[in-house]
Design goal:
Blueprint (H helix, E strand, L loop, with lengths): L2 H13 L10 H16 L3 H14 L4 H11 L16 H12 L3 H9 L5 H13 L3 H11 L3 H16 L3 E12 L21 E15 L2 E12 L7 E13 L3 E14 L2 E16 L3 E14 L9 E13 L5 E11 L8 E15 L2 E17 L5 E16 L4 E14 L6 E16 L1
Antiparallel strand pairs: 1-2, 1-14, 2-3, 3-4, 4-5, 5-6, 6-7, 7-8, 8-9, 9-10, 10-11, 11-12, 12-13, 13-14
Helix pairs in contact: 1-3, 1-7, 1-9, 2-3, 3-4, 5-6, 5-7, 6-7, 7-8, 7-9, 8-9
Length: about 450
C-alpha cells in the first residue's frame, strides 16, 4: 500500500465505530494485542489499529488495547484531530475528507483550511500539496501534523518525499557496477545480436535528472546518464532522454500519457535515436488495483552494421496489484510485445508474464523484487533454415535505504538468461551495483 493510501486508511480506521464481539473473551483479546504489538514493532500502524480494536471488542475493559489505540489515534473516539477530544470539528472535517476521496481536491483544500486546529486537516492538506508537487507547502503542513502522535510515524516518510519533490526537482545518482556481459548495452538490438566472447568488467554509472512541473499535471524531464567502463572503454555509453508526461488523476483512477526522445552515444559516436509514446492506466478498488499500459517506440540505429535492427517496437501489459498484510504489495502482469525490424530474422512476437513484489521491511527501507519470463517467436528462418525461438528470463532486486531528507543508499542486482534455438543467441548477464542518490526539491 502506498504511503498516501496508508494515511487515508489509518484516519478512517481511527474514526470507525467500535466493534462488538458476541461475548467477552480475554484470551482472544490477548492474542490480538500480541498481533498489534508486533505490527507496531514492524511500523505497520494500520494492522496495529485493526488488531487493538479487535482486542477491545473482545474485552472492552482491556486497558492495554485502549491505551494503544489512544496513542495511535491521538485520543481515540470523539477526537476531531485537534487533540482536545471535543469532537466539534467532526462534521466539517469528515465532509472535507469525503471531498478529498472523491477527487475534488480544490474544494477539499478550502474545506480543510476552514477546520480550526485540526492535525487531521493539516495531514490531508499535506497530502494534497504532495499530489500537486508543492513540496514547500507539504513541509509546512506536515510539521504541524507530526505533532499529533497519530500521524507522527506517517509524517516521517512524507516529509522525506516533500524535501525531494517540487515544481523543480533534481536527482543525481552514482553507482559502481560489476557487469558480467557489458557488450549487451542498453537498447542492444534484439537480444543476443551482440555475439562474441563474454568479458566481465567494472563500470561506474552516473545519472542526473531534472524535472520541471509548470502545472501539477505536467512533468517535463531530462535525464543524462554516463556509463564509464574500466577495462573496455570502447563500450563507454552516454544517453540523454527527454520526456514529457501528463497525468489525469481522480479518486480511484489514474491515467498517464508520456512521450520520450532518446539519443545515445557509444564510445563517443552516435548509436541510437528513439521516439516513444506510451499510456498507462490504474483503477483502485479496496485493497486491489487494475493496471494496464501500452507503448509504441521507434528505434533508429546509426551504424550501418546495426541498421538491420531499426524499426518499431510495441509493448503492452495488463494485470493487478494487491495490497497484502504487513505492508506487502504483489503485482502480477501479463506482458507482450511485437518487435519489427528491417531484417525479418530479428522481428518477433512475444508474450509472457511478470511478478513484482514491493515491501518496506523497515520504516526507512524499501525493497522491490521482479521476475519476468517472455517467450518470443521470430518471423523468418535463419540462413540454415532454423527458426529462432527464445525464452528470456529476467530477475531483479532493488533496495533503497533513506539516510536523510535528501540522501538515499541504493543496492541492486539484475540477472538475465536468454535461452534460444540458435546457439549464438544463448547468453546470460549479471549486474551487481551499489551507490548513492541525492535528491532536492524546490518551490
Amino acid at each position: 500500500m502506498s504511503v498516501l493510501a496508508a494515511a487515508v486508511t489509518l484516519a478512517e480506521l481511527c474514526r470507525a465505530p467500535d466493534e462488538r464481539a458476541a461475548g467477552r473473551d480475554p484470551a482472544d483479546a490477548a492474542a490480538y494485542i500480541d498481533v498489534g504489538d508486533a505490527a507496531v514493532a514492524a511500523g505497520d500502524s494500520i494492522t496495529a489499529v485493526i488488531a487493538y480494536r479487535k482486542a477491545r471488542a473482545r474485552d472492552p475493559d482491556d486497558r492495554r488495547a485502549a491505551a494503544a489505540i489512544a496513542t495511535l489515534c491521538a485520543g481515540g473516539d470523539g477526537d476531531d484531530g485537534d487533540g482536545d477530544g471535543d469532537g466539534d470539528g467532526d462534521g466539517a472535517l469528515l465532509a472535507a475528507i469525503a471531498r478529498y476521496r472523491a477527487g475534488d481536491h480544490a474544494a477539499a483544500r478550502a474545506a480543510l483550511a476552514a477546520v480550526p486546529g485540526s492535525s487531521t486537516a493539516h495531514l490531508f492538506l499535506a497530502l494534497i500539496a504532495l499530489e500537486q508537487h508543492d513540496g514547500a507547502a507539504a513541509i509546512r503542513e506536515l510539521a504541524i501534523a507530526r505533532g499529533d502522535p497519530r500521524y507522527r510515524e506517517l509524517a516521517e516518510p512524507l516529509l522525506r518525499l516533500a524535501h525531494r519533490d517540487g515544481r523543480l526537482a533534481l536527482a543525481v545518482v552514482v553507482e559502481p557496477e560489476l557487469d558480467t556481459n557489458p557488450q549487451l548495452l542498453p537498447d542492444t538490438p534484439p537480444a543476443g545480436a551482440v555475439t562474441g566472447a563474454r568479458q566481465a568488467d567494472e563500470d561506474v554509472v552516473t545519472a542526473a535528472t531534472i524535472t520541471a512541473r509548470p502545472w501539477p499535471w505536467l512533468a517535463l524531464r531530462n535525464a543524462l546518464s554516463w556509463r564509464a567502463q574500466r577495462a573496455l572503454p570502447g563500450l563507454d555509453f552516454f544517453g540523454e532522454s527527454a520526456q514529457a508526461a501528463a497525468e489525469l488523476a481522480g479518486a480511484r483512477d489514474r491515467l498517464t500519457a508520456r512521450y520520450d526522445f532518446d539519443a545515445d552515444l557509444l564510445d563517443g559516436a552516435s548509436y541510437l535515436f528513439a521516439h516513444r509514446i506510451a499510456a498507462a492506466y490504474r483503477h483502485d478498488f479496496a485493497g486491489l488495483a487494475v493496471v494496464a499500459s501500452y507503448g509504441l517506440r521507434r528505434r533508429d540505429y546509426v551504424a550501418i552494421a546495426e541498421q538491420a535492427f531499426t524499426g518499431w517496437v510495441h509493448a503492452f501489459d495488463a494485470g493487478v496489484a494487491v495490497a497484502l498484510p504487513r505492508g506487502l504489495e504483489l503485482e502480477a502482469r501479463l506482458i507482450g510485445g511485437r518487435e519489427l525490424t528491417r531484417d525479418p530474422t530479428f522481428a518477433n512476437l512475444g508474450g509472457g508474464g511478470a511478478v513484482i513484489v514491493r515491501t518496506r521491511p523497515l520504516a526507512a527501507a524499501r525493497v522491490v523484487a521482479t521476475a519476468r519470463a517472455l517467450y518470443a517467436g521470430y518471423d523468418a528462418a535463419q540462413p540454415d533454415g532454423v527458426v529462432r525461438r527464445d525464452l528470456a528470463l529476467d530477475g531483479a532486486a532493488e533496495l533503497e535505504v533513506d539516510l536523510g531528507d535528501h540522501l538515499t543508499a541504493l543496492a541492486g542486482a539484475d540477472l538475465t538468461r536468454n535461452l534460444s534455438t540458435i546457439e549464438d543467441f544463448r547468453f546470460w548477464k549479471l549486474v551487481v551495483r551499489a551507490g548513492l542518490l541525492v535528491a532536492f526539491g524546490g518551490l
